[in-house]
Amino acid sequence: MKRLVTAISVAAFVVGAVVPSLVMSSPQYPKGSGDVANGKSIYENGKGSVPACSSCHGQDGTGDDALGTPRIAGQFWVFLRKQLEDYATDKRLDTTMFVMNDNAKGLSAQDRNDVSFYLSTLTTGKADEYKGSDLNALKEQGVEVGLTHKGKTLVEYGQGNRAKPVPSCRACHGYNGRGAPPIYPQIGLQKYVYLVNQLKKWRDGSRTNDPQSQMQKVAKNMTDEDINNAAAYLTNASAYSLGNIMQPYERGY
Predict the structure, then answer these.
(1) Given 120, 151, 185, which residue is the final one in a domain?
(2) Are 101 and 43 found together in one domain?
(3) Are 107 and 115 in contact (CB under 8 A)?
(4) pLDDT at residue 124 above 80?
(5) C-alpha count within 13 angstroms, C-beta hemisphere, residue 180
(6) Residue 73: phi, psi to the nearest 5?
(7) Residues 6 or more apart from 16 whose CB is under 8 A from it?
(8) Is residue 243 part of a domain?
(9) What is the pLDDT of residues 77-97, one digit of tens each?
(10) Within this chain, do residues 102 and 186 fall inside the same structural domain, yes or no?
(11) Whole domain around residue 214: which residue ranges?
(12) Which residue, 44, 142, 168, 210, has fewest beta-carbon neighbours within 10 Å?
């Protein structure tokens, strides 16, 4: 018995010594590269006929509920670049501001890469440095806002007991929508209006640039209430799980 207890104690010590280093190490995912100065210049000043990205997405890149634009600061480089390439080739159509297709075409492939890389660097990696939407303010403005506690159920567990089941957002986008690069973007701490609008666009087929039509299939089984609830939870959902002071995409470790 003493040997068993000793063995367990030693194992616990080893795990305790090893796990923190594993948790603290950054996962391997495509972080990209590019000319930050060029990307910053395009974002803040535009280039040629292309206006400054900040005019719609804000100086800090956190988006605008009134315009329906998303937070793009701190988003994964590979996802941002894909979206710009999809706009440039009309695989994704901008039905929000009706400018992104022309803007993307007005930039070179290198420009699109550089602005994507610049935006991906606008974070310390601390997931909660950004804030989502102010749901109370949106309600006062007459925006229909969902219920966060019901949204958490959809995001974390889905709804499998329906005739048309809805899988959890977490299954692809990770805990509280913190993202799973290189395919799945951060949807946590995203603007509420943007989340609602995009889910409805996936559902009605006006957006179709998702890998293997995954989002279209999910959204088709979501009601307006589901969409509002999920967006209400995600917009202010922390990327930190209970009992863990870190999350996978922090930098500096």
Answers:
(1) 120
(2) yes
(3) yes
(4) no
(5) 10
(6) -65, 130
(7) none
(8) no
(9) 999 999 999 999 999 999 999
(10) no
(11) 127-234
(12) 142
Measured between alpha carbons, how far is 83 from 116 in angstroms, rounded to an integer?
9
Which residues contact residue 145 at a Cβ distance below 8 angstroms, ignoring those fewer than 6 apart? Answer: 135, 138, 139, 192, 228, 232
Lowest-confidence pick of 112-126, 150-164, 167-181, 216-230: 112-126
How confident is the model over 196-244, as pLDDT tens digits? 999 999 999 999 999 999 999 999 999 999 999 999 999 999 888 888 8
**Ramachandran sector of residue 184 (left: φ over 0; alpha: ψ -120 to 50; beta: rest):** beta
In a domain, 18, yes or no: no
Q: Show the tokens assigned to 110.
A: 């290198």
Give every CB contact of residue 253 below 8 A, 6+ residues apart in sequence.
24, 25, 26, 246
pTM attached to this predicted model: 0.87
Same structural domain, 49 and 84: yes
- Residue 164, domain CATH: 1.10.760.10
Residue 91 corresponds to which tokens in the numbers above? 């695989």
Q: Is residue 168 part of a domain?
A: yes
Q: Give the whole-angstrom CA distance, residue 144 versus residue 228.
A: 8
Is there a contact between 188 and 237 (Cβ–Cβ < 8 Å)? yes
Q: Where does a domain end: 101, 120, 139? A: 120
Residue 245 within any structural domain of the chain: no
Instruction: Please state the domain count of the chain.
Output: 2
Clarify whether residues 41 and 135 are in a common domain.
no
List the one residue out of 28, 238, 26, 233 whose CA is nearest residue 127: 238
